[in-house]
Amino acid sequence: MKEIAELAIDVAVSSGATYADCRVVQRGIQALTVKDGRFAAVSSFEDEGMGIRAIVDGAWGFASVDRLDSDSLGDAARLACRIARASARLRRQPVRLAPAPVVTGGYVTPMERDPFEVTLGEKMDLLIRADEAMGAVAGVTTHEASLEFVREHRFFASSEGSLVDQVIVESGGGMDATATSDDDVQTRSFPNSFGRHQLCAGYEAVAAMDLAGNASRIAAEAVALLSAPPCPTGRMTVILDGTQAALQVHESCGHPTELDRVRGDEAAYAGTSFLTPDLLGRFHYGSEQVTITADATTPGGLGTYGWDDEGVAAQRTVLVDRGVFRGYMSSRETAADYGWTSSGAMRAESWNRIPLIRMTNVNLEPGESSLEEMIAGTEHGVYLETNRSWSIDDRRLNFQFGTQNGWEIRDGKRLRLVKNALYAGRTPEFWRSCDAVAGPAEWRPWGVVNCGKGQPGQVIHVGHGAAPCRFRRVSVTASS
Amino acid sequence: MSPASPDDLLALADAILERVGRDVAEVTVVQHEEALTRFARNQIHQNVAASSRRVRLRLMGDERVGVAEIRGEVDDLQGRLIAAAEAARELAPAGDVTPLPRPDAGSDGPVAHSPATALCTPEWRAGQVGTVAAVSAVAGFEAFGALQTSLTHTAIANSQGVRRHAASTSASLICVARGENGWGYADRHHHDIGRLDAEQVAQEAVETCGRNQQATALDPGVYPVVLSPYAVADLVGHLADLGFSALAHQEHRSFMRPGERLMSQLVSIADDASHPDAMPFPFDDEGVSTRGVSCIEEGVCRSFLHDSATALREDVPSTGHALPMPNTFGPWARHLVVTAGESSLDDLIAACDHGLYVTRLWYVRDVHPLRTVITGMTRDGTFLIENGRLGRPVRDLRFTQSIVDALSDVRGAGRERSIELDESERALLVPALGLGSFTFTS
Question: Which residues of chain B lie closer than 8 angstroms to A479, CB-CB?
């Protein structure tokens, strides 16, 4: 890989690049699915290629190729420089990069059990047990369980001399049970919706999920939701479980603290941000209970690595400190606009995409409460579990989320199951209404595997440490 | 990047099938070249090209199926692919395995393909973006967006004798114009980049932006609306995903009730992969010819889309709407065509006494799939309609609305249609629509 990267960079520099970096990536994915006790599929995916980014005449060009012979590498490097020259025709200010140390090093995801060393038979047995347990619950219409494992070997080199070699391993799994009636469809997922929960970890992460042990419960909940009453409507206290808190952080804090959105780089697609730099240090984003960090060093986090795709070391950045807006996730280019250094958040989906500012592990730091205490301290409200729908405007202010499960709370007690819950609000008002976050015992890293951004589109895996948290006077409705 | 030839791709597929030596294998080879020039603040800020080939093998036998896919020209591609697929097949538990399709009588055309798109250069793209930036700058605005081109060769062969190949192209120009206090949007998509008029796109975005300055708040509520084709595409794409698939019907998740009228007589929606203006493509991911399917006919629910698996369950032929098999997602609409009406856009607005014109929807997500309830935001130009005329701009609003309910009260449909690509890059040919009521919730 080193030779491939250095060859491509040499060609780019000799073709006029004042800066070039190259990523060589080999990725393997193994996916297993069992559905309804009769459908089963095992798939493997291998991927290999190289992408090179070059600055020529003060503008960016990028080219990628899946043929790693010297001719193809040279062609790609020259194409990147040609594209950069075309870009320069419509560039008023030359690209500036914030300084970054020249680095050499390696990183491997810590794990107890390499998922690619575990037999397919053991993995399939786990899925079959979970699928069978869901199917044994009367009233369940369809049920599905799946696992996914990823091993990505990335080599990064830059014309400044950085050389970084990393192996990132991810393990994920999940299941869904769906129950239907003539006029309703209800689904319960575990441990998270959107197919699975995933971590940068070995097979131990999947084993710890205990899919089979939770299968009957979630299937029974799906059936019970069919006859459950709709969620009560009005202004009330809302307690979010860790998975929904993670998505709330993702949409309403993660995306608006991406500095490229603030510059307008994503304005035509993903949008911009209400968190403009003039608000740094003085804007009350949330209550004192709310501290949010972007931490690429979180153990097990799905956004954990050694260096980002610009060769900047993984680090912890405070985004919101006890309610006050304090920082952004940034790149070398965006940080240079403000005289800062990069926060090390540049990530590419694969070798054929340029790195963009992406979330690492954007964590709601643990508080001092507990779910039990939060429920006990609630006169009238709902406890909401597992995302069902999510939407937010292009500045990340006006949001509406729905959850699969809701539990009505009265006088400090969790009462009946309710369905079709929706809650809505505006980001700062919502986070300012947060009066409790559960402590470290209930805090854990969650993985989001479907974060989309950029043109061409890139889907990337990000992490969110979160625990149950409580919000007062939130607008709650039920979808009819 | 060097273009692939159909013979090369099919020869690779044939070689793998021969080496597999079984009568239950399918090989898919996709060579994809793409380029995209992205601009912000009237400057190019990202500019990329990518070239890749992926080869996929589906291997069946003993009621088991294994799949392997390799992207990249790795050493001993054929051997690694076969070994991985065989290992997966051997360890998969026995279950329902849908037989491979046999050759059908479909032809390898029509296909959305343009040599001009395939040969587009970074310099040409920069020139077009320069045109957009110049139009925007003259108006005192900043332009943001992307110009994208792609060329895809797809070859599918299986051991039952299916051998298909097609080369398709796609070109898209998306433009957002930003003024001091508001935005405007326009896009064009076509397989022939020569059909994208950069100046026209920029002018439309600039004009909307010019009207959309100093928007003021409007109380949420139920309003009649005129939706531009951009917004209609989002609505129709979600409707299709919520019910047109035979798998959704078989699993009791679909809103469709065949033979029942659920929508206005003005609503007819088909999936038509042969329509020349809907990015035509002749076959699905199993190599089955894609047939036109009328899903909604004058408001009445009609037929579902099938792949081989759903077709087998109902003992009917596949309609050629498969995604790569096997999968748990089911058949998918890729060429949605909404029948045009007789109105101009001005007619639709003139027919509305008091309502809203919506340029674009954003972040649309399903809230209650069976009831086709979705939520999302308006974006880049929402205007009050007063006494049949376009009035003041209003701030973006959130809507939460059943699509079926919205389409049950259609006041008029545009006679002009445009090609749109939705979030999943599926093609839709859609008109503007005037709807009697649409619920805005915040």
Answer: 367-368, 371, 373, 400
Inter-chain CB proximity B70 and A456 less than 8 Å: no
Note whether B201 and B249 are same-domain residues.
no
List the structure tokens of A123. 């993995």
Q: What tokens does A52 get?
A: 């090179």
Residue B120 is part of a domain; what is its CATH number?
3.30.2290.10
- B188 and B241 part of one domain: no
DSSP 8-state symbol, B2: P
Yes or no, beta carbons of A267 and B80 under 8 Å apart: no
Nearest Cβ partner for B146 among A44, A59, A455: A455
Last-in-domain residue among B209, B226, B260? B209
Q: Which amino acid is at B350?
A: A
Using CA atoms, how far residue B119 sits from A86, A109, B71, in Å, is 16, 42, 23
Q: Are strands A469-478 and A434-437 parallel, antiparallel or unpaired?
A: antiparallel
Q: Which of A246, A479, A228, A215 has the alpha carbon at shortest distance from A362?
A: A246
Which of B161, B182, B209 marks a domain boundary?
Answer: B209
Q: Are residues B115 and B244 in the same domain?
A: no
Which chain B residues have a beta carbon less than 8 Å from that of A392? 363, 377
Whole-model pTM: value is: 0.96
Task: Let me know whether B295 and B195 are in one domain.
Answer: no
Rg (C-alpha) for chain B, rounded Å, is: 23
Q: What value of ipTM does the predicted structure carry?
A: 0.94
Kindly state whether residue B1 falls inside one of the protein's structural domains.
no
Nearest by CB to residue A42, choosing from B70, B92, B144, is B92
Cβ neighbours of B36 in A, within 8 Å:
455-456
The DSSP string of B283-347 is B-TTSPBPPPEEEEETTEE---B--HHHHHHHT----S-PPSSS-SS-----EEEEPP-SB-HHH
Domain co-membership, B192 together with B325: no
Question: Quick one: B259 and B205 in the same domain?
Answer: no
By three-state DSSP, how is residue A187 classified?
strand
**Looking at the structure, do residues B190 and B221 belong to the same domain, yes or no?**
no
Chain B residues in contact with A75 by the CB 8 A cut-off are 1
CB of B39 within 8 A of CB of B50? no
The tally of CA atoms less than 13 A away on the side-chain side of residue A435 is: 12
Selecting from A46, A89, A141 the residue whose C-beta is nearest the C-beta of B130 gives: A89
Nearest CB to A39; choose among B68, B253, B326: B326
Each residue's pLDDT tens digit in chain A (480 positions)? Answer: 999 999 999 999 999 999 999 999 999 999 999 999 888 889 999 999 999 999 999 999 999 999 999 999 999 999 999 999 999 999 889 999 999 999 999 999 999 999 999 998 999 999 999 999 999 999 999 999 999 999 999 999 999 999 999 999 999 999 999 999 999 999 999 999 988 899 999 999 999 999 999 999 999 999 999 999 999 999 999 999 999 999 999 999 999 999 999 999 999 999 999 999 999 999 999 999 999 999 999 999 999 999 999 999 999 999 999 999 999 999 999 999 999 999 999 999 999 999 999 999 999 999 999 999 999 999 999 999 999 999 999 999 999 999 999 999 999 999 999 999 999 999 999 999 999 999 999 999 999 999 999 999 999 999 999 999 999 999 999 987
Q: How many domains would you assign to chain B?
A: 2
Going by C-alpha positions, the residue among B95, B89, B22 that lies closest to residue B63 is B95
Please report the domains of chain A, with CATH numbers, ordered by start residue. Answer: 2-227 (3.30.2290.10), 234-478 (no CATH)
Closest residue in B to A145 (Cα) is: B328
B164: containing domain: 6-209
Phi, psi of A477 (to 5 degrees): -140, 180
Task: Identify the closest residue of chain B to A393 by CA–CA distance.
Answer: B377
Distance in angstroms (rounded) separating the CA atoms of residues B292 and A430: 48
Q: Which of B329, B389, B399 is nearest to B367 (CA)?
A: B399
Residues B262 and B138 in one domain: no
